[in-house]
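Dock iron/sulfur cluster; give full complex structure.
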Amino acid sequence: MTLTEKLKKWYEKNGRDLPWRVKGKAHQNPYEVWISEIMLQQTTVKTVLPYFERFLKRFPTIADLAEAPIEDVLLLWQGLGYYTRARKLHECARVVTQKYNGYFPADRKELMKLPGIGPYTSAAIASFGFNLPEAVVDGNVIRVLTRLNGWEDPVTTIADQINAFAEELTKASPCPADHASAIMDLGAGVCTPRSPLCPFCPFNQDCVAFKTGKTENIPNISKLKKEIKKGYVFFIENKQGQILIRKRTEKGLLSGLTEFPWNTDESFPFKAQWQITDKTVKHVFTHFDLTLTIVKTQVDSLPENCDGFFVFPAEFKNYPFSTLMQKVIKKMSGEKKKNTLLP
Ligand code: SF4
């Protein structure tokens, strides 16, 4: 039996049932495939499932998404993180609606011209949405393929080799969509980063890493050293009990989201009687780890040189706060009751 045949057999019995997947053929709606793929970037399947359901309920078609204000999209994205994805998603929906009459092109090169769709996502839409023989290579797939071949070189130096082998397997499969799902499922559930379940793997007779006892060393992924950043987040209350919030600029980190003023240089935005609390929030970004200490004060009115506006805490739910800022809200809930803000 060939590798693809072994994988097919394993998948028929063990493949996951997911709402954005149809076994044995392409998904009937590439729009749903696209939504799921964008959500799944940097996010687990378990986390994505309820978001996917809510999103499709609110935006059942690409036209619904294209017509919606970006604020509605960001609100539904709240908690998923990496908000640039949501902005690009919205932009892409508009382009597909206007330029392609609401239908994704069934061609990987065309797909890559769309906002927010890179090499990986284009391959995923082509495969899952159109059953085209495009190799879908994510971290799970890389792990399976490098272990199977016993490739110990750093993954970044053998990317072409990995892609070529992935393509070879994909082309040998009668159903590329199933093949892509199968190899991902194998990586997610059997060929796991730690303690892979090799005795249950359809490739255990072929796998070099298993035979040589090197599964823990492969794939060879050199970890980048992350920067550590520290700063303050400011919880500024007026006499009416409203809190100062602001909208981030349209570009860059957490763009377009609502936030409390914060910085990473531990300076204060204006002169006031600041109280540094013992509360901190931590958040892991792609390139750095951030710890913010919550600092609070009370003011009569919006200080000069300070942008933003005041809202009551009960209104926070109407604004798209990032996960980082939601942590601040959680830490500060109960503060009003205890009346611990400065007089
Ligand atoms: S035999 Fe083990 S290491 Fe090899 S592909 Fe299967 S699960 Fe991964």
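Observed: The CA atoms of residues 242 and 311 lie 5 Å apart.
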